[in-house]
């Protein structure tokens, strides 16, 4: 995604607009207003993403295939329109007027290899513990596990599973676009690159609070869900080590083990 190397790092680290005399400041907003515009834009994106999930009135639970398909449509529309919010923010604040929208959002070839490899390495380290525990608890050996994972029939089953598509494809892609690619360039000029990296997940975490009402509505949880959602709002990351969903019947063991990412599973 965003290549934070070379000029890309300097782009996101652009300093906030300097305070000018009142006569010169009439042509654009001051630093304080720029920060308010950035925060309001990020909050609007988060509310739009979550609000799009509830434009369809339904009495069915969120895991019903019909509900999942409708929410696919909603989040894809919001995600496709979210770059327009960044474009409007740039016009209002006057920050980086000569930079293309895609470059501002982090879509560029410069520094693509470290931007792709370093997060992959970090994710591998994060998941190393659960995967090692899984390999020790699983009765099958490594060769049998690889055969299951690489079997085309297993992937075909996953591609027809609406929950799998939601948890592993649609939710991660749309969340990264809205909550990282669009929000990070708007927050970095106001707070600096370092604080912006830790601020973006806060908007992502607050978006989880809507699950409280849905879980209580279908009596899926109790007050404990409130504390669980509050904990997600306070964390500074978009994922955590996964839980593995295993099949108990022999006929289902040929399917690919589904890694249930907590963030993706809880949003769409």
From TrEMBL:
Locations listed in the record: Endoplasmic reticulum membrane
Residue runs in coiled coils: none
Gene Ontology annotations of biological process type: CAAX-box protein processing
Region (Disordered) residue spans: 238-268
GO cellular component terms, A-Z: endoplasmic reticulum membrane
Keywords: Endoplasmic reticulum, Hydrolase, Membrane, Protease, Transmembrane, Transmembrane helix
Top enzyme class: hydrolase
MF (Gene Ontology): metalloendopeptidase activity
Domain CAAX prenyl protease 2/Lysostaphin resistance protein A-like: 164-215
Comp. bias (Low complexity): 244-268
Catalytic activity: Hydrolyzes the peptide bond -P2-(S-farnesyl or geranylgeranyl)C-P1'-P2'-P3'-COOH where P1' and P2' are amino acids with aliphatic sidechains and P3' is any C-terminal residue
InterPro entries named among the record's database cross-references: Rce1, Rce1/LyrA-like_dom
Membrane topology label: Multi-pass membrane protein
Transmembrane segments: 36-56, 68-89, 109-128
EC number per UniProt: 3.4.26.1
Family: Belongs to the peptidase U48 family.
Protein name: CAAX prenyl protease 2
Organism phylogeny: Eukaryota, Metazoa, Chordata, Craniata, Vertebrata
Gene this chain is encoded by: RCE1
């Amino acid at each position: 995604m965003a290549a934070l190397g070379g000029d890309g790092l300097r782009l996101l680290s652009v300093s906030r607009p300097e305070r000018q005399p009142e006569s010169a400041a009439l042509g654009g907003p001051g630093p304080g207003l720029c920060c308010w515009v950035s925060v309001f834009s990020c909050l609007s994106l988060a509310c739009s993403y979550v609000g799009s999930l509830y434009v369809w009135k339904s009495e069915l639970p969120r895991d019903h295939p019909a509900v999942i398909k409708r929410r696919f449509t909603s989040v894809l529309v919001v995600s496709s329109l979210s770059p327009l919010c960044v474009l409007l923010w740039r016009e209002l604040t006057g920050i980086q007027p000569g930079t293309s929208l895609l470059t501002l959002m982090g879509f560029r070839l410069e520094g693509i290899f470290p931007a792709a490899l370093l997060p992959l390495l970090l994710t591998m380290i994060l998941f190393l513990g659960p995967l090692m525990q899984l390999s020790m608890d699983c009765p099958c050996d490594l060769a049998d596990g690889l055969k299951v994972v690489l079997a085309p029939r297993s992937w075909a089953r996953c591609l027809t599973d609406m929950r799998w598509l939601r948890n592993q494809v649609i939710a991660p892609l749309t969340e990264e676009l809205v909550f990282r690619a669009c929000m990070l360039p708007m927050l970095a000029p106001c707070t600096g690159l370092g604080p912006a990296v830790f601020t973006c997940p806060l908007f992502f975490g607050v978006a989880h609070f809507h699950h409280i009402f849905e879980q209580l509505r279908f009596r899926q949880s109790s007050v404990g869900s409130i504390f669980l959602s509050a904990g997600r709002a306070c964390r500074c990351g978009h994922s955590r080590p996964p839980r593995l969903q295993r099949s108990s019947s022999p006929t289902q063991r040929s399917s690919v083990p589904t890694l249930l990412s907590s963030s993706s599973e809880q949003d769409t």
